[in-house]
Amino acid sequence: MQIAGRTIFITGGGGGIGGGMAQAFAEQGGRIILADIDADFAEAEAAKLPAGTDAMALPIDVTSRDSWAQARAAAEARFGPVDILCNNAGIASGFAPLIDMDPADFDRLVAVNLTGVYNGIACFARAMVDRGAGHIVNTSSMNGLNPFGLFAAYWASKFGVLGLSDSLRQELAPHGVGVSTLFPGLTRSRMSESDTVGPGAMDPARLAQIRANMMEPIWLGRAVVRAVEQDQPYIITHPEYRDDLARRFDTILAAFGEPAQPGYRTGASATGR
Length: 273
Prior knowledge:
Pfam families: adh_short
Strand content: 5-15%
Family: Belongs to the short-chain dehydrogenases/reductases (SDR) family.
Catalytic activity: 2,5-dichlorocyclohexa-2,5-dien-1,4-diol + NAD(+) = 2,5-dichlorohydroquinone + NADH + H(+)
Order of helices and strands: EHEHEHEHEHEHHHEH
Oligomer: single chain
Strand order of the largest sheet: 3-2-1-4-5-6-7
Number of strands: 7
Keywords: Oxidoreductase
GO molecular function: oxidoreductase activity
CATH architecture: 3-Layer(aba) Sandwich
């Protein structure tokens, strides 16, 4: 899909990766809608876009379907149908064992990071299917592929985004609608710079070193643009995670062996592949 003249709706548009996406799509002549729970941050990002960019900022609570409906109505009143949806809004929490987590915090993480993605799809995908064109980008995380302890609720929500996106891509491909999943690593944003997100027990010098090596959001945004143009299923921007991911998948593949049931006849999987 070519970007020039297309309308792009970006949640989590108040900075960080969402701001990088907006910049990158604007570079290619896209019309930009920046939606964020904090409309002031979205307005500030809209003001940073290249001169002449047709853009607007909107408030949105991705956990509220009424909020989605209102944002869609405002966007379409200004630009007409949305061509590209970037479900990028997300939150994190401090590092802690899952058994010590407040259930309300778990519910909130899933509501924003996973159900919020579903809400965006439910709001826009049917119209894309009816037009026979469109693209959806869902933001997961590198740790949605390879998790580690003390952040289980976040990783669970991001694993969910991967499964949802892979299935949705198969469902929508026959209708001319693409789906891509973004797996960012450490990226400069308000969330990654917040002291409430990082592990409280981490040595301050180590934490400073990590934050000094974060990728700038514009480069992730440009990777997203390429993925939309080429209909790529996965967008991986941080190659330093490859070896860890390879070890994880080697462990999974090593678990395959003989059927658990003696005499079981192996054949086609339930997916029909």
